[in-house]
# Entry
Amino acid sequence: MRKLFFVSLILIAAGGAGRADVFYDDLGSWEAAATSVTSVDFESAGVPPNSLSFIGMGAGANYSAGGINFAVGSSSDGLLAVLGDNFYYPGVAVITTQGSSTAVNDLLITLPAPVTALGFTFGDFYGDTATVTLSDGAVAYPTADALFINPSLGFFGVTGSTGITSLEITTPDPVMNVGSVYTGASVAPEPAYLAEGGLLLALITGIALRRRLQETRN
# Structure
């Protein structure tokens, strides 16, 4: 029975380690699934309103704010710039990569420490489908808000059981904007997961007790 008990704990632990990432397309739902949330807002990034700060061009050009690093990824030779409030997109300060000769826009975001809840506001000029690749191997395909039509940013978020240290956003659009980045911890353990673990443990324990009774009678 003791052996079966330890096996059940191993199975439960293995189930927890394999929990898939959950994706969110609105900030409210993501915040409900996260705790200890902090954010970096680029309206306070030190760039004056109605102005642009040119950072660099080509893969590796990078800028840091609040311990978070933003860099042009390896598949783009675009430029990296920080926009002040009300520069082209009203009320939004953004990190932007502007594609040049490459067909893809690529922005790499690296965090100072692993997190299990991560989100950011973003958009691009035409509202294309972006590819978000997380350091834990998960991939999502959110649709960016079209800044050409509405100068506001949408949201993408993720929670999971494995620490995320970075993510890469790629899009065929010539302009990509990130306004704020949110980090935190996913709410854990999940109630449904606990219920499954409890049922599994009860089932294994019941089987073990039944076998013990049968052995005693024999």
Q: What stands out?
A: The first strand starts at residue 22 and ends at 24. Residues 191-217 form the longest helix (27 residues).
